[in-house]
Design brief:
Blueprint lengths: L8 E5 L20 E2 L2 E2 H11 L4 E6 L4 H6 L4 H9 L3 H8 L7 E6 L6 H6 L2 H4 L4 E4 L3 E5 L6 H12 L2 E7 L9 E7 L4 E9 L10 E9 L2 H7 L11 H8 L5 E5 L2 E5 L3 H14 L4 H9 L4
Parallel strand pairs: 1-4, 1-6, 4-5, 8-12
Antiparallel strand pairs: 2-3, 6-11, 7-13, 8-11, 9-10, 9-11, 10-12
The chain binds 1-O-phosphono-alpha-D-glucopyranose (G1P).
Length: 295
Amino acid sequence: MASTSPVTTAVFPVAGLGTRFLPATKASPKEMLPVVDKPLIQYAVEEAYAAGIRHMVFVTGRSKRAIEDHFDTAYELESELEAAGKQALLDVVRAVQPADMDCTYVRQPRSLGLGHAVLCAEHIVGQQPFAVLLADDLMVGEPGGPPVMAQMTASFAQHGHSLLAVQEVPEDQVSRYGIVAGTPAEGRLIDVERIVEKPAPKDAPSRIGVAGRYILTPRIFQEIRQQPRGVGGEIQLTDAIARLMRKERVGAYQYAGKRYDCGSKAGFLEATVELALQHPEMGETFRAYLKTLAL
Ligand code: G1P
């Protein structure tokens, strides 16, 4: 079915090194770490697809080839599964790249930050609004409700301005996030008046933290280009959003659902346990196993 989404392209910055997961990420991309049976990047791509987005743009780097292979035909594997009559497995493998989904890859040649990664996709995205999904943040909607990006594209269809997914974060964790402050607006929206990247708790304007989902208007590219390096010597997307805000309305969208910070070991383990418990094939067995543990 043709998609009628107001956002047709998603950018996935996947060039990061994943040092928090060494040695697992020494030779494998962190985005390929599996939560139960799917790599992190596939959760993010499926979320974008469920929002009607059909063009996936990956901003990759050296040693990230496995991501390209994952979203390509696995010729030998597919012919062997076919020959063995293993249709269910074949379906699982083929579902990774639906026929109406296009993937484009572009390299980020140096680690200059998230803003720079997004800018690397400019010539592919062009002059249209686009989504950004950080695969480290595994996002799930509420049971039976729409996934987070679909909530955001619906809001974008209504309002047409840039959106940042936000959630309240504990005070001692504000320095891990872009933090926003603003005025409550319609529904789940806050009109953003300030945004700061990774402030110290004493300088944080609020406890409303940005999760790794954005819908941005193409004007952001111009702002990133003018953006000097910020925190950590990197070109921060947050700083470019602060500039964008002076010219256009930017909304913080308080999504319905849950975020697992799979860039941290604790968050990754929480995602693994909770998604395993919900897994149709092994949820019950895993629940029974957990109950046997003397915790
Ligand atoms: C990035 C952004 C930050 C945002 C976070 C969400 O930081 O720079 O503003 O709050 O993602 O996960 P990172 O976690 O890549 O350091």
